[in-house]
Design a protein that fits this description.
The protein is mainly α. Helix content is 66%, strand content 1%.
């Protein structure tokens, strides 16, 4: 490998070895920081059906994944297993948007590589925390909803940006503060610190999604707010994103008041 970003992406997407994937992600980020990353885009693009995931966890449709309360036996471990899975798939999502869409400025790839590295850090932190709870990543089943959206948007960058950072990841901005409050009430400082770290980084991830969504819309002479509404209506199951919405954090992350008004109206 000649420190080419897209070869790093291909290795991470097409290898099912978790630790190797994490190592390559951090290595690619260090290459960027050191000015050693090659952004030559002239590499073939394999179809998204060739992306590989580890044998465990078993993936189920979201409706078949048991929903365990934090107060139930094993509930905290199950919760963090679900978070670990989200963060693990988020590594793939960041690498896939790099790998699949090649006609963008260098800054696009630098942004998403930083995001891939931060998602890898999140996963490592949560996986370590899981071990203290007597569980390993892969011990429970997990859902494939996030990657389903990746497959649906494999040939549509605007849809990918609208559905992943500006819908699914943005949902974390809505629900995580309430989860942090629950762990504060339990006196669980470790969990609070982990969730605060993830929340802080995710605001930046969603903001980058908003930035590039608006920029690509402008390049294609599309009105961003109208395009966002159209894509969510087209792709989002049922066409009704779930509320309530954290307006303060979403504004910081690049949402407009008009978009939030529309989302709130749709969720009723």
């Amino acid at each position: 490998m000649d420190n080419n970003l897209f070869e790093f992406a291909e290795s991470c997407l097409h290898s099912a070895t978790i630790d190797e994937k994490l190592t390559l992600t951090h290595q690619a980020w260090r290459c960027l920081e050191n000015g050693e990353l090659n952004l030559d885009r002239h590499r073939p693009i394999a179809p998204i059906t060739q992306v590989k995931f580890p044998e465990k966890p078993q993936w189920l449709a979201p409706r078949f994944v048991p929903n365990r309360k934090l107060t139930a036996p094993g509930g905290v471990a199950a919760f963090f297993h679900a978070i670990a899975h989200i963060e693990f798939v988020a590594i793939y999502l960041a690498w896939d948007i790099i790998y699949r869409f090649r006609d963008l400025p260098d800054e696009f790839y630098q942004d998403w590589l930083r995001i891939a590295d931060e998602e890898a850090q999140h996963f490592e932190l949560i996986r370590t925390h899981l071990q203290t709870l007597g569980m390993a990543y892969g011990d429970l089943a997990a859902h494939g909803g996030l990657w389903d959206l990746a497959r649906l948007t494999a040939d549509n960058l605007l849809a990918r940006l609208a559905l992943v950072p500006r819908c699914m990841e943005a949902r974390g901005l809505d629900v995580t503060p309430g989860l942090i409050a629950k762990f504060e009430k339990r006196g669980d400082k470790t969990s609070v610190a982990l969730l605060n770290r993830i929340l802080t980084d995710e605001v930046g991830h969603v903001e980058r999604g908003s930035y590039w969504f608006k920029l690509v819309c402008q390049q294609q002479n599309l009105e961003p707010e109208m395009q966002y509404r159209q894509l969510l209506t087209q792709y989002y199951e049922g066409g009704k994103p779930k509320g309530p919405f954290n307006r303060e954090m979403r504004i910081i992350a690049g949402f407009s008041n008009a978009e939030l008004d529309w989302l709130e109206a749709q969720s009723l």
